[in-house]
Input
Amino acid sequence: MPSELVLTAGNANPSLAQEIARALGTRLAETEVSQFSDGEVFVQVNENVRGADVFILQPTCPPVNHNLMELLILIDALRRASAFRITAVIPYYGYGRQDRKVQPRVPITAKLVADLITAAGAHRVLTMDLHVGQIQGFFNIPVDHLFAAPVLLEYFQQRVAEHAWQDLVVVAPDAGGVERARAFAKRLGTSLAIMDKRRTGANETKIMHVIGDVRERDVILLDDIIDTAGTIVQAVSALKEEGARRVLASCTHAVLSGQAIERLERSSIEEVVVTNTIPLREEQQGKKITVLSVAPLLAEAIHRIHTETSVSSLFI
Output
């Protein structure tokens, strides 16, 4: 086992990195991550990491390309500094939605990014709620795939215990999210419904109808990502038309691009529960947004990887 655990981070989510460091009882290694005047990324590790077990915290969230380059250059710098093992901790895996060919002559960018991370010199990856689990197979190195469900479940179970929400039903916003929603509903002890969604273009979807009974019930719309919030807002309207009493949304990754906050604020949705895998800018922190921290979960996973103990048992 490597003699020392070293935690470092790029500029993508410094607050989460600091939280993880505190949970681990350590500090972030002194690393300079900056830019030249032409936009090129510059990295310098200011501590000895020879023979160390290094974990780099860097979600590839917006600005996606810049944060991805920071991650790749950090990995390269640490590899050249003779780190024993380099684990890329990527709470949000950008490009994860480009996981297959849906039209002729289009890329599978999720695979390309996996190849870049491997080629840069990462020995393993720790990530959370991939858009599809099959992305783990795009890597030729070990991948530890965490789920934010325990963090979200704890929040909702507390709200149910306080009688803030009653007669709940968990709703999957599309067919692809059924497995996630079913597991969540089972743990919460509620029933399941599904939205029938048709994608009409990039960031464009249309809700057709609701499969399941939501009449006079409180609803949790569960997804992995909320991006432009178009799907969520359409789903809320469809659920209200079907007689849903109150609607709440939850996701792991709050991308919240474009007019997402305005759409959520204008909708009849009561609360949007997200995690801090992606840092929210000031203008994204709407009145309806509740942010839960995944730092303790990530810190425990990092500790288990470092000590060569089971990560999967976190979710048993």
